Amino acid sequence: xxxxxxxxxxxxxxxxxxxxxxxxxxxxxxxxxxxxxxxxxxxxxxxxxxxxxxxxxxxxxxxxxxxxxxxxxxxxxxxxxxxxxxxxxxxxxxxxxxxxxxxxxxxxxxxxxxxxxxxxxxxxxxxxxxxxxxxxxxxxxxxxxxxxxxxxxxxxxxxxxxxxxxxxxxxxxxxxxxxxxxxxxxxxxxxxxxxxxxxxxxxxxxxxxxxxxxxxxxxxxxxxxxxxxxxxxxxxxxxxxxxxxxxxxxxxxxxxxxxxxxxxxxxxxxxxxxxxxxxxxxxxxxxxxxxxxxxxxxxxxxxxxxxxxxxxxxxxxxxxxxxxxxxxxxxxxxxxxxxxxxxxxxxxxxxxxxxxxxxxxxxxxxxxxxxxxxxxxxxxxxxxxxxxxxxxxxxxxxxxxxxxxxxxxxxxxxxxxxxxxxxxxxxxxxxxxxxxxxxxxxxxxxxxxxxxxxxxxxxxxxxxxxxxxxxxxxxxxxxxxxxxxxxxxxxxxxxxxxxxxxxx
Length: 504
Known about the structure:
- By secondary structure, the chain is of the alpha/beta class.
- It folds into four domains: 6-118, 3-Layer(aba) Sandwich (Cobalt-precorrin-4 Transmethylase, domain 1), CATH 3.40.1010.10; 123-250, Methyltransferase, Cobalt-precorrin-4 Transmethylase, Domain 2 (2-Layer Sandwich), CATH 3.30.950; 257-286 and 419-502, Rossmann fold; 290-418, Rossmann fold (3-Layer(aba) Sandwich).
- Helices cover 33% and strands 21% of the residues.
- It contains 18 helices and 22 strands.
- It has helices spanning 22-30, 68-80, 99-109, 121-128, 160-165, 179-188, 218-224, 242-245, 267-276, 295-303, 316-329, 345-354, 368-375, 396-403, 426-433, 443-451, 467-475, 489-502, and strands at residues 6-11, 33-36, 53-56, 59-60, 63-64, 85-89, 112-116, 142-146, 169-173, 196-201, 209-214, 231-235, 257-260, 280-283, 287-290, 310-313, 340-343, 384-390, 407-418, 437-440, 461-464, 482-483.
- α5 (160-165) links the parallel β8 (142-146) and β9 (169-173).
- α2 (68-80) packs across α3 and α16 (443-451) packs parallel to α17.
- The chain is elongated.
- It starts with 5 loop residues before the first strand and ends with a helix.
- The model has no long low-confidence stretch (mean pLDDT 91).
């Protein structure tokens, strides 16, 4: 019996999480073992299923933690053992990624494998810098080569004499460390010294930076700006188009490093909004959601939810936990009966609507006090209410509803605990690189962030989603830099844009 699994040689794309292919995501999600390099998008690791073994082989210039022959042997061995192995490589595995060598080893070993192309930084990097590698006004030919080899050594597989004479655009990868030697080789073999050249580092991410010059001066510019790898270089007249179509680096939050402390599952909405605005986002979840302390009591309350006059939801997490439990017991949505539904905030209301239930009451202020004010306009005396909440929630709602004459039962749907895992290395990155802003979306994110013991970065602001979160920040000795006027993710995003727009 052949127990062999399948090895997927997967391109992780150039860095922007949105440029990862659907097939790559599928492969990562089904992987039993993930073998990966130093990725531009470490968030890819969050797509793995529970129990997936992650093996870092750390390939980057001058820092190969695992030699290539050992990587080859590793993926063959794990695949032969019947595992689904994903070999995740930045960009495209077949463009200077040694994917061909790994595929040959797998083929020789007789194991199943699949090649999943990725978007290469050789194309995406220039595009995100506003440089089309082909353009009718400038070129009809594109040449891609590696700058990894030293052109001054005795023998090189790169023919610089031929490259210098070739028409059209030239793109090279892995050449920043040898930039002066490469540009000198081009000029030495006949290229015009004033030929435009651009270098883009950390292309397609919020850390992207581009410098522009000519073959004769780009090395001086790079040294003066301490420009380092990883970067892609473009040589040719197409570089002139950047002045007109530099779209990515002109976005409102470009160049700003912002930390998101929400749970891993919830971080996506805020992270995507910030990335779409050009920010360099560090996802550092400080909390995670776990089940209720008394699962039996929770299940019983959900089962009897149809007996209540009102259901009161204060968070999307509570909504999700409630309805997942409800539909585990009932196959028909009509079994919920006809209680009215109240929700704090549009985020909670949106999650309720995803389950095809209408929301009867949303307060003007998305805080507990706002909900009580809204209920003061309703006649709720002697009405029964089921309050679906977190274990750590303030008692403002329960006490406020009881004061209005309602009969309130608390349904604890989940509890918030400290997030202990950091698979993407976000904590180390924050400590080493700092940040411009750290966002807090609840008091629990504040408490657990400060429990990490991370020194607050220099010149870094604290963004609060609302007054309760702000008060928790103050108790920790940190004055909020600003507070969202609308206490939800869109409101926080708008406040962040306003902050950086006003900041000189």
